[in-house]
């Protein structure tokens, strides 16, 4: 979609969806990968699997690689931001000009998860999901290596400003 393409990654609760909304509000083309590209699939083969619930769903949260490649190749937009996380990101990271990794401290993460609706991933009362989110947050094992770290504890407008400071060239629509 974009002649330049950027990935906004980070663990659950770091603000990927909020950053996507703010980029759109500012007039940028932004894809919410968790809503527009995600499906339940086998992380090894990519083959779709029946919908999985609870903690197990995390392992099967993939993005459609063919769709990511097609959006990047189209070049219809001057710039596109892809926001979200997937278990198969390593298979398409090379498509992005820059990968940004949103980071928050554990207390901020917990506050954000507490503020989620009870029916949302990691929301209140979803103990096993929250334990997984916290374990992954502490270990960082699923985050892309070599990405540009962004302190996502700052106000949303500041977080987006910091991302845009790294993006070179004219970005006006």
Please give a structural write-up.
The protein has 173 residues and is α/β, with parallel strands linked by helices. The protein is built from 7 helices and 7 strands. It has a single domain, classed as Rossmann fold, CATH 3.40.50. Helix content is 36%, strand content 21%. It has a 5-stranded parallel beta sheet with strand order 2-5-1-6-7, sandwiched between helices. The longest helix has 13 residues, at 127-139. The radius of gyration is 16 Å and the shape is globular. The two termini are 14 Å apart.
Helix content: 25-40%
CATH superfamily: P-loop containing nucleotide triphosphate hydrolases
Assembly state: single chain
Number of domains: 1
CATH class: Alpha Beta
CATH architectural label: 3-Layer(aba) Sandwich
Shape: globular
């Amino acid at each position: 979609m974009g002649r330049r393409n950027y990935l906004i990654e980070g663990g659950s609760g770091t603000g990927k969806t909020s950053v996507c909304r703010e980029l759109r509000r500012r007039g940028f083309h932004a894809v919410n990968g968790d809503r527009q590209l995600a499906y339940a699939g086998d992380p090894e083969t990519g083959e779709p699997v029946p919908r999985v619930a609870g903690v197990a769903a995390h392992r099967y949260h993939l993005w459609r690689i063919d769709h990511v490649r097609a959006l990047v190749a189209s070049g219809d937009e001057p710039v596109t931001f892809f926001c979200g996380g997937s278990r198969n990101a390593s298979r398409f990271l090379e498509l992005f000009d820059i990968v940004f990794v949103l980071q928050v401290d554990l207390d901020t993460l917990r506050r954000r998860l507490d503020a989620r609706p009870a029916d949302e991933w990691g929301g209140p009362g979803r103990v096993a999901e929250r334990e997984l989110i916290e374990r992954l947050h502490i270990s960082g094992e699923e985050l892309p290596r070599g990405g540009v770290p962004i302190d996502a504890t700052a106000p949303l407008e500041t977080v987006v400003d910091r991302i845009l400071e790294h993006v070179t060239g004219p970005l006006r629509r």
